[in-house]
């Protein structure tokens, strides 16, 4: 027993205390730094940095990217190219309507792949469902006509939606937000869903509603990934977007598809006139199309007062370039 | 690409979400 005791290392309290103490302090330091990072305001780009990025030919890049991805690939090259894309962006091909990679002639077609009919059940108990596969970037109530694209980074509601038919009475104190509301008992809410490159890129109707107006804002095509959304204020007002607005059972409703460099064009299934990411446009302009007057021409089954969309119904898609 | 929903709803509308959450088409966002 005494031999065994002699062979054991002698306890050294001081080094033990130093090692455990410094470990504990290090843990506390990283914990506090993480908390600070989460609560600190995002580091915004300066106006010069925004202007520089804005002046970059993102639309031209986007269209070139689209053309490149519209080129048909030889059959032997399809599987390795798409497999690389699947591996890089984590695409779940088991959900795709067509799992055979040889079926897709080019990357653009692969990007627009449809899903099997039963893989996206629509929640029957919720009055508002997700319009797309993606990541919730931000959500909440709209305060003071400013909407948050991410926590702490806002954009103007008026710049985003454009002028409304009902003009604000300058003598009254009503804001742009109040102008949209049909009842003082209601509030304005928002949700931002970010679609990553590997996600299914069609979007569906989140509820039962009537689309009355389509407003197309041509614009820049900067990246909309969460890092850039945290960096550039008013990003969603600078980028090309299509705003669909109308009414649902509780009043005003709008769905906006915002384009990005890779995914520059937006298609609406019920509106063949819409053309996005075109070479020429005048800065700050927008084009309206009212569905109220032309509902019978837009969609055979359209009801009077707009295009009727049902919860879960496919509405449109994003395309490469 | 991004989808932004802006809508009017009664004040007691509540979201069943958290920022950064992955979501799929048709999943509930909120209810009354």
Give structural attributes.
heterodimer; A: 321 residues; alpha+beta; 11 helices; 13 strands; B: 32 residues; mainly beta; two-stranded antiparallel ribbon; 4 strands
Describe the structure.
The complex is a heterodimer of chains A (321) and B (32). Chain A is 31% helix and 23% strand. Chain A is of the alpha+beta class. In chain A, strand 8 (241-248) and strand 9 form a beta hairpin. Chain B has no helices and four strands. Helix content of chain B is 0%, strand content 53%. Chain B is globular, with a radius of gyration of 11 Å. Chain B has a two-stranded antiparallel ribbon. The model of chain B has no long low-confidence stretch (mean pLDDT 92). At the A-B interface, strand 1, strand 2, helix 7, strand 5 and strand 6 of A face strand 1, strand 3 and strand 4 of B.
In a few lines, what is going on in this structure?
The complex is a heterodimer of chains A (321) and B (32). In chain A, 31% of the residues lie in helices and 23% in strands.
What strand order characterises the main sheet of chain B? 2-4
Proportion in β-strands of chain A: 15-25%
SSE pattern of chain B, N- to C-terminal: EEEE
Which chains make the largest contact? Answer: A-B, 65 and 30 residues
The overall pLDDT average of chain A reads 85
Biggest pleated sheet of chain B = 2 strands, antiparallel
Indicate the overall shape of chain A.
Answer: globular
Following the backbone from N to C, one meets helices and strands of chain A in this order, namely: HHHHHHEEEEHHEEEHHEEEEHEE
- By helix and strand content of chain B, what is the structural category? mainly beta
How many β-strand runs of chain B? 4
Mean pLDDT of chain B: 92
Helical proportion of chain A, percent range: 25-40%
Global Rg of chain A? 26 Å
What count of helical segments of chain B does DSSP give? Answer: 0
Range of strand content of chain B:
over 45%
Alpha-beta classification of chain A: alpha+beta
The oligomeric state is heterodimer
Ends of chain A: how far apart? Answer: 79 Å
Question: Which range best describes the helical content of chain B: under 10%, 10-25%, 25-40%, 40-55%, 55-70% or over 70%?
Answer: under 10%
């Amino acid at each position: 027993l005494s031999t065994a005791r002699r062979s054991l290392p002698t306890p050294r309290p001081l080094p033990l205390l130093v090692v455990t103490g410094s470990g504990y302090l290090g843990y506390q330091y990283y914990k506090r730094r993480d908390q600070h990072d989460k609560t600190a305001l995002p580091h915004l780009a300066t106006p010069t940095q925004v202007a520089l990025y804005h002046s970059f030919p993102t639309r031209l890049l986007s269209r070139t990217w689209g053309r490149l991805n519209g080129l048909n690939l030889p059959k032997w090259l399809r599987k390795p190219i798409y497999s690389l894309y699947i591996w890089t962006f984590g695409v779940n091909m088991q959900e795709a309507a067509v799992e055979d990679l040889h079926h897709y002639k080019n990357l653009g077609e692969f990007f627009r792949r449809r899903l099997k009919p039963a893989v996206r059940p629509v929640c029957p108990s919720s009055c508002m469902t997700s319009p797309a596969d993606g990541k919730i970037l931000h959500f909440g109530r709209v305060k003071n006509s400013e909407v948050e694209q991410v926590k702490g980074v806002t954009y103007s509601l008026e710049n985003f939606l454009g002028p409304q038919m009902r003009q604000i009475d300058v003598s009254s104190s009503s804001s742009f937000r109040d102008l949209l509301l049909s009842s003082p008992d209601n509030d304005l809410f928002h949700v931002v869903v970010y679609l990553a490159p590997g996600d299914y890129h069609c979007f569906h109707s989140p509820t039962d509603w009537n689309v009355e107006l389509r407003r197309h804002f041509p614009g820049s095509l900067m990246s909309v990934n969460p890092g850039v959304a945290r960096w550039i204020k008013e990003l969603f007002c600078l980028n090309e977007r299509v705003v669909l607005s109308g009414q649902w059972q509780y009043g005003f409703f709008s769905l906006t598809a915002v384009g990005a460099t890779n995914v520059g064009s937006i298609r609406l299934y019920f509106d063949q006139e819409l053309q996005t990411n075109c070479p020429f446009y005048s800065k700050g302009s927008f084009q309206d199309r009212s569905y109220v007057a032309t509902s019978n021409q837009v969609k055979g089954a359209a009801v009077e007062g707009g295009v009727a969309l049902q919860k879960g119904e496919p509405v449109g898609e994003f395309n490469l370039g | 690409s991004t989808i932004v929903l802006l809508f009017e709803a009664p004040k007691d509308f509540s979201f069943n979400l958290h920022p950064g959450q992955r979501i799929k088409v048709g999943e509930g966002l909120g209810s009354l």
